[in-house]
Amino acid sequence: MNDVLLKTREKLNFIAGEWVGGADAAENRSPSDTDDVIGLYTRASREQAEAAIAAASAALPVWGATTPQARADILEAVGVELLARREELGELLAREEGKVRAEAIGEVVRAGQLFKFYAQEALRVEGIAIASTRPGVRVEVRYEPVGVVGIITPWNYPIAIPAWKIAPALAYGNTVVFKPADLTPACGWELAEILSRAGLPAGAFNLVMGRGSVVGDVIARSPGVAAVTFTGSESTGRGIREIVAGRGAKIQQEMGGKSPLVVLDDADLANAIDCAIGGSVMSTGQRCTSNTRIIATPGIHDALAEGMAERTRGLRVGHALDAASQIGPVVDDKQMRVNLRYLGIADGEGASRLCGGEVLERETKGFFLSPAVYAGCDNSMTHVREEIFGPVVSVLKAPGYDAALAIANDSLLGLSSGICTRSLKYAEDFKTRSTSGMVFVNLPTAGVDYHVPFGGKKGSSYGSREQGRAAREFFTASKTTYTNPL
Q1: Does pLDDT of 70 surpass 60?
Q2: Which residues are catalytic?
Q3: Cα(25)–Cα(209) distance, integer angstroms
Q4: In terms of residue numbers, what domain contains 225?
C-alpha cells in the first residue's frame, strides 16, 4: 500500500477547529471480516492531547457565553443529521463493532435522540430563587458550566455513549476533549466530523484519538481539565479515578456489571426466556447491563434452563451485515481469548454447559463464538461473579424469593437487576431491596431509555448519574449569590 493511498484514507484528529495528523496511525478492521479494513485512524501524541485541552480552555468563555438558543440549534442539527444518516452510520457501526445491522442502526438512532433531547435541555438551564433568612437579602442559585470536560468512551457502544456524554457537556456550556476507544474509532470520528460542521466555535469540541495510556492519561492528569467522564473497565476506571480525584477534579464513571435476573415460579415462562436470553447473549453479550446471572426458583428452574438452551441453539451467529445473523462476532481476538478462558473456568468449576461456547467458522475470517448457557451454577463460581463481557449466561437455583434476592445482591457490582414475576408484592419488594442502580420487572436488564438517569451502585459506578436531566449535576457547578438591593 503506497504512502499516497494511506494518506487519503487516514482519518485525522480535530483540534482547535482544524483536522491534524498525529504521532502514528492504526488500521481499523472489522471483527466480522478481518480482511475488511474500515480505515486508517490517526493516534494523537501527548503534545496534541495537551494542545486540544488548551484549545478547549481558550474556547470556554466563548462557548459558555452563547445563548441557550444557539446551543439548542447546534445540538438539534447534529441530532437531525444522525437520524437522517442512520442507515449509513449503522452499517459503519456494524462493520466496526460487530453489532448486527438492526441493532447498530438502533444505536445511531439513540445517539440522534440524545442530541435532540439535550438541545431542548439547553433551553432549560434553570436557577433557583430562595428566600433569605435575613430581611431584604435576595438569594439565588445559578448553574454554570463546570469547564473543560474530558470524555473517554468504550468500544461497545461507539456512538451512543459518546453522544450521551458530549451532548449534555455542550448543552450546559462546557467545552470538550473527546477520546473514543482505540479499538473502535470510526463512529467517534464520524460524530466528530458532524460536530465540526455544526457551528461550534473553534476549540469548543476536540477529537483526540489514540491509546488510553497516552491520550487518556493526559486527559486524566491535566490541570486544565475540570471534569472527566469515563465508561470502561473497573480496573482502568480505578486508576483514572485516583488520578482525577487526587488533583481535585470532578469524576464520573460507569464500569460494568454482573446483573442478576430473578425468575420466580409464577413468572410467565415464555417472557422469562425472552428476558433471560434477550438481556444476556444478544449483542454478543457485550453490554455492561447484561443479565448474565439467572436466578430461578425450583418450580420454574428446569423448564427455564431448558428453554434458554433451546432458544440459544437456534440463534444464528454470523457477519454483522448478514440479514440472517442474530448475533454478530466478538469484537476482537483479545476479547475472544477472554471469553474462551472464562468458558474453561466454568467447565473446570463444575458448571454444566447446556449449549454453545464453540468457535465458529464462517465464510469470512472473523471472531465468531456460539453463545453459551450454563446450569448447575452457584454464586461462588468465578465465571458467575466476574464480568465476562461475552455471550455466556449462568443459571442458578434458589429455594425461594428471599434466597434469590440475597444471591442477586451478593455481588461487588450493582448496575442493573431484574425480576420476572406476576406478583405485585414481590415486584415492589424487589424494586425496593435490590442493591442496583436500575431495576427491571418482566423486562431484560439491558434495555434503557435515554431520557432518564442511568447508573449503578457499588463497583459499577462512581459519581453522579448520566443521561436525562440528572446529567446536569455533573456537567454544571452551582453558584450561590446574595444581593442586598440598596
Answers
A1: yes
A2: 254, 288
A3: 9
A4: 3-255+460-483
